[in-house]
Design brief:
Keywords: DNA-binding. The protein has eight helices and six strands, in the order E-H-E-H-E-E-H-E-H-E-H-H-H-H. With 200 residues, the protein is an alpha/beta fold.
Length: 200
């Protein structure tokens, strides 16, 4: 098996190389410390699996579907969903344990490994209403107020009364928020999601 480690920091890249070099399934390890080197490796090397830090990505669709594992400094729900949709093998922290990293080598096609310590924040985000999981900077001040109240569980009639707007105006604001959420993630999600679907 040929793997590519895409990590900009020398110390972490060396650590990852050491972890994978100990596995007898690995016959070749390539390394990329820059996006230019990453692109060159992707176009010229026979790679079975890419272990890539999210800081090295410009567009997730540049990665071969089903042949990559993301290493993230923290949970980014939008990136998590994009990775899942694009067939990632796993979503792990930058400091994932060696045994978890090596476990990605033997995953069956269609599997998606989530680091256990990341599951709680991911489930917390999924347990909310994803229609309002949107980047704050895309919202107007009024839309931010509405999202904040919706996340607190305030019903729409009360929100309209508290903000001194009609329910029709509130409905328009919510439609705009939903549109911005969809545009910012480029994902088609069901209107109501109570829990994530982890298996494909």
């Amino acid at each position: 098996m040929h793997i590519l480690i895409a990590e900009p920091r020398d110390i972490l890249r060396t650590g990852l190389r050491t972890i994978f070099a100990e596995d007898e399934r690995i016959s070749q390890i390539y390394e990329a410390a820059t996006q230019e080197t990453l692109k060159a490796c992707l176009s010229s090397k026979p790679i079975n699996l890419i272990i890539i830090n999210t800081s090295m990505m410009s567009n997730i669709k540049d990665l071969p579907r089903g042949k990559f594992v993301l290493l993230a400094p923290e949970v980014d729900i939008e990136l998590f969903l994009k990775a899942y949709k694009h067939g990632a093998r796993g979503f792990l922290s930058e400091n994932a344990p060696a045994e978890l990293l090596r476990a990605t080598l033997g995953l069956a096609e269609g599997s998606f490994l989530i680091e256990p310590k990341m599951t709680v924040p991911i489930l917390d985000l999924f347990s909310g209403d994803l229609r309002f999981a949107v980047k704050e900077e895309l919202l107007t001040p009024r839309e931010r107020e509405i999202v904040s109240l919706l996340r607190e569980g305030t019903d729409r009639r009360t929100i309209a009364q508290d903000l001194h707007i009609s329910e029709a105006t509130l409905k328009t604001h919510i439609k705009n928020i939903t549109r911005k959420r969809t545009e910012s993630t480029s994902l088609s999600l069901p209107r109501e999601i109570n829990q994530p679907e982890i298996s494909r």
